[in-house]
Amino acid sequence: MDGLANITGESGARCLRDALMVAAERLRAGGIDNPRLDAEVLLADCLNMSREQLVVAMDLPIVPAAARGFEVLLCRRLAREPVAYITGSQEFWSLDFIVTPEVLIPRPETERLVEVALLHTAQFSAATPLRILDLCSGSGVVAVSLARELPSAQICAADISPAALAIARRNAAAHQTAARMRFLSGDLFAALAPRPEAGFALIVSNPPYVRRAEIVSLAPEVSRWEPRAALDGGVDGLDFYRRIAAAAADYLAPQGALALEIGADAASEVSAICADTGRYRQIEVFQDYAGRDRVILAQLGTN
């Protein structure tokens, strides 16, 4: 392989620093954002090191077997496969989560959804047994993060994809939260049939919200690799918000709330969808740390 010759050099093994430099330049030439970071992550993964360990080891030679493995990973990245799918993991909420092409890759912005959820649950007495439902749970990052932060909470993670739920179960097991979690397969609230007698203090969801026609214009890492069903929010991107907002109030406990991640341009529309149900007494919009609208919190009203 030409790339392999560049990594190892014509006269034998080269050091990790040189291999990394060459790889970053190839990624840059291939139109990859953050080429140096991606090269470091892939080389560290190839060598079974942390990035911190890689920095210390920069002057060590890269042996041919490692160079061959690194070349395979670089070729996958040059084909625009996301780094998280190549390494099989992604950090979220300062935890490492298993991800595969069956689930969306967790975004940092979604941590704001966890923060708003915790803000809502803080109003409940420590003696109150919290029940939380995560709809469209995917890899389970939101549900597992909440379970880690709320050690007395019982959390249901629901998703229409059995493959996604299998990943969520693995993540719960990895982070020692599985004993307090249930994993339910079905289309939104149908996963809960029959309806539970006790309501939820919080229903949280990061549903599909990309407008259908816009999916093909997304970055190749998203449009080619991430599961379309987890992206497609319908013609206007609002299908799931309509369905969730209309039904959620029937599943909430007194003082319960619905927390929804939204696209940055959808705050007014999703707020209106919640308001039009006539079931929520207070609807708030929260921004992420880039100043973009990111989360809707709709507090249950009294009939």
Explained architecture:
With 303 residues, the chain is an alpha/beta fold. The protein folds into two domains: 78 residues, Helicase, Ruva Protein, domain 3; 211 residues, Vaccinia Virus protein VP39 (Rossmann fold, 3-Layer(aba) Sandwich). It has a seven-stranded mixed sheet, sandwiched between helices. The protein has a two-stranded antiparallel ribbon with strand order 1-2.
Provide key terms for this protein.
single chain, 303 residues, alpha/beta, Helicase, Ruva Protein, domain 3, Rossmann fold, 2 domains, 7-stranded mixed beta sheet, two-stranded antiparallel sheet, elongated
Secondary-structure blueprint:
Blueprint: H1 2-8, H2 16-29, H3 35-46, H4 51-56, H5 64-78, H6 83-87, E1 89-92, E2 95-98, H7 111-121, E3 131-135, H8 141-149, E4 154-159, H9 162-174, E5 181-185, E6 200-205, H10 220-223, H11 239-248, E7 252-261, H12 267-276, E8 280-287, E9 293-300
Parallel strand pairs: 3-4, 3-6, 4-5, 6-7
Antiparallel strand pairs: 1-2, 7-9, 8-9
Helix pairs in contact: 1-2, 1-5, 2-3, 2-5, 3-5, 7-8
